Amino acid sequence: MAFSKAQGIGPLIGIVAMLVVLWLAWTSRKLTGRITVVAAGLIGGGAIGNLADRLFRGGHPLRGSVIDFIDFQWFPIFNVADSAIDIGGVLFVIWTVVAHRKLRAA
């Protein structure tokens, strides 16, 4: 989980990540806008990357830890998958705001 919060509940986070990936795969079939497709891809890819760490880095399935390696010394340590998830989330927010404004203008 972001910024090393909720340590010790790795299996639960792994299950939630699997559900998010499945949900994104199911719902993204209906996405038509470029921003939404890219956002879904970033979130899904980031979730799969972190899930792979949890699956394959540990003695038991879903008990592994995610490897964070980007350290600016003034910000919490993170990895590329975390960045992809965050950027995808921001893109979804931007899309929502733009779509809402277009609806209000119509």
Helical element count? 3
* Biggest beta sheet attributes: none
Q: What is the averaged pLDDT score?
A: 82
Radius of gyration: 16 Å
Query: How much strand?
Result: under 5%
Q: Quote the distance from N terminus to C terminus.
A: 40 Å
| Helix coverage percent | 55-70%
Low-confidence spans: pLDDT under 50, at least 5 residues? none
The H/E string reads HHH
Extended strand count: 0
Structural class, by secondary structure, is: mainly alpha
What is the molecular shape? Answer: globular
Describe the protein in words.
It is globular and about 55 Å long. The chain has 3 helices and no strands. 63% of the residues lie in helices and 0% in strands. It is mainly alpha-helical.
Topology, pairings included?
Elements: H1 10-27, H2 34-56, H3 80-105
Defining key terms:
106 residues; mainly alpha; 3 helices
Short description:
With 106 residues, this protein is mainly alpha-helical. It contains three helices and no strands. The longest helix has 26 residues, at 80-105.
